Amino acid sequence: MPVTSESSPVSRSPRTRSSTGRALQKGQQTKAAIVEAALGLATHIGLEGLSIGALADVTGMSKSGVFAHFGSREELQISVIREYHTRFEQEVFYPAMSAPRGVARLSALFDNWMKRTSIEIDSGCIYISGAVEFDDRTGPVRDALASSVLTWHAAMRRAIEQCKVLEELRADTNAEQMLFEIHGLILALHYEARFLQTPGSMGRAVQGFHNILARYSAAMPGAAATTAPAAAAKRRKVFNQTTTSKE
User: Fold this and answer.
1) Cα angle vertex 104, ends 103, 106, to 5°?
2) Can you give the pLDDT at residue 26?
3) Which of 47, 43, 40 is nearest to 145 (CA)?
4) What distance lies between CA 172 and its chain's CA centroid?
5) Fold of the 74-242 domain
6) Which end of the chain is more exposed for a tag (fewer CB within 10 A), N or C?
7) pLDDT at residue 242, rounded to an integer
8) What pLDDT does residue 149 have?
9) How far apart are the C-alpha atoms of 146 and 206, rounded to whole Å?
10) Residues 37, 58 contacting (CB under 8 angstroms)
11) Is 167 exposed, middle or buried (0-12, 13-18, 19+ CB in 10 A)?
12) Residue 210 C-beta-side C-alpha neighbours within 13 Å
């Protein structure tokens, strides 16, 4: 018995499939361009400053055209957070994975974090500004932002735990406490350099990191105290050569 037209699959010509593929690719490219523009705005005016209308003006699109790619302002904000997190991982996390496990990798993670922060002194950090905007709110945008930050914290915590396993940090090192102190350096740096414009903020943050390493080091206290200042001075020199800040 022949197969009826109702049960047969719909066949598309190669030309139709090609046109559909091009349309999909163009739509993805357009959405990526909108997210790029939105990310640029968000770093300067915050996530709450984003609007469909503002993005329509920046991209030269209609409001309905921008809206069609996201469906809501909330989804636009979440898309920006995801893109920011992707770039953060590409610049901070993945390059550090080439360093050996232990203090070398933990230091690489911090170095990359510092470099990212030094760049954002002029523009602003979505993780920090977003926390101020959404700390007392609930909803998907706050959840997406918190999830991104917690994912990064988990990576730092794993690096600290690896240092303990390799006996480069003391066995009684509290990873949560050490992470808290390291994160505090980044927050202090952003506040001091961006808001107060305090000279030498970058150097103080670098020294603070080495003070933390020395305090938790599994090496003899005397040796740690001796090597920390020299290591900090070396890292400050590297940052002065590779980054530009408002100091």
Assistant:
1) 60
2) 74
3) 47
4) 29
5) Tetracycline Repressor; domain 2 (1.10.357)
6) N
7) 47
8) 98
9) 26
10) yes
11) exposed
12) 19
pTM exceeding the 0.85 threshold for the entire prediction: no
Question: What pLDDT, in 10s, does the model give residues 179-199?
Answer: 999 999 999 999 999 999 999
Q: What is the DSSP letter of 245?
A: -
Longest dimension (CA), the chain: 90
CA distance readout (Å), 46 to 71, 151, 240 = 20, 21, 28
Give the Cα separation of 62 and 55 in Å (integer). Answer: 9
Judge whether 179 and 153 are in contact, CB under 8 Å: yes
Q: What is the dihedral of CA 81, 122, 40, 80, to 10 degrees?
A: 0
Q: How confident is the model at residue 237, as a pLDDT? A: 55
What does the DSSP 8-state code read for residue 10? P
Block residue for tokens 């990873």? 175
The structure tokens listed for 45 are: 């005016």
- For the chain, list residues with pLDDT below 70: 1-24, 220-247
| Selection from 130, 121, 118 nearest residue 39 by Cα | 130
And the tokens for 72? Answer: 């809501």
3-state secondary structure at position 50: coil
- The pLDDT value given to residue 232: 52
